Amino acid sequence: MYLLKNSGVVRQRRRTLVLVSFATLLTTATLLFLDAPAADSKRVPPSLQFEKMPHRNTLVANVTFVAFDTETTGFSPSGDRIVEIGAVKFRNGQVLAEKSWIIHPGRRIPYWATEVHGITNEDVQDKPSFKKVYPEFAEFAQGSVLMAHNARFDVSFMAEEIRRAELPMLNNLVVDSLPLFRKWFPDARSYTLSEVAHYTEVDTGVLHRALADSMYVVLIFEKGLSKRNGHLRLGELYQESGGAMSF
Fold it and tell me: How would residue 9 be classed by pLDDT, with cut points 50, 70 and 90?
């Protein structure tokens, strides 16, 4: 009887150890998953893996940003493609450089997408692929904090294109100007880029073109920043935009 009792205790202890080990493994796997950089524009805290990014304590006035925008064939990062990238590099209210790329998407552009951004199949006929354009964009953005309006859309498309082309993923952090402008301009009627531009009296001649929309983000951002007396730090900007995003 003593042996039977003890064997039962042993079996119970073994079951307990197995359950504890499984729970530990599951917790570890979950933490690793949550800490991994994601291609679906996951929000992450700045960490050592972004060592080339400016420090969180840096004054925003001393940070180089690249506002960027994409135009696409549709709304699905997995099924659609980028047809245009626009980018504006700026620091402390000064535009340092600007560039745009028209891209052959490797598929036809639907008529309804052309009605939005005006880019036709003829426009992209002799243009380079994303794989050829991407290294130029990566070099343009190197060391900068990226910024985009409704950044989840642009980051998701960029990440999918990069993965499809089997190229190195960008390690830049991204500020989403959509939640940022919601916080900075709480009385705006809505937070589409055109409405925020109207609210902040930024002239918009052309909309839904990548370079023009990037420039509007810059101009609106600088108007909001001017009301913060030059003391805003990068970490505070991340916080006010809902957290930095990564690719």
Answer: very low
Q: Does residue 52 sit in the same domain as residue 29?
A: no
> Helix (H, G, I), strand (E, B), or coil: what is residue 20?
helix
Is 101 among the domain residues? yes
**Rounded distance, CA 38 to CA 44, Å?**
9
Q: What pLDDT is attached to residue 52?
A: 74
Same domain, 88 and 23: no
> 4 by DSSP, 3-state: which?
helix
| Residues labelled as active-site residues | 208
Q: Which DSSP category does 60 fall into?
A: G
Range of the domain at 144: 48-240
- Bridge partners of 98? 88
Measure the CA–CA gap between 213 and 246, rounded to whole angstroms. 21
pLDDT tens for 45-89 read 444 344 478 999 999 999 999 999 999 999 999 999 999 999 999
Residue from 70, 31, 80 nearest 149 by CA: 70
Dist CA 228 CA 80 (whole Å) = 39
Q: How far is it, in rounded angstroms, from Cα 196 to Cα 6?
A: 73
Q: Based on the structure, what is the number of domains in the chain?
A: 2
pTM for this model (two decimals) = 0.80
pLDDT digits (tens, 9 = 90+) for 103-125: 999 999 999 999 999 999 999 99
Structure tokens at 161: 């294109």
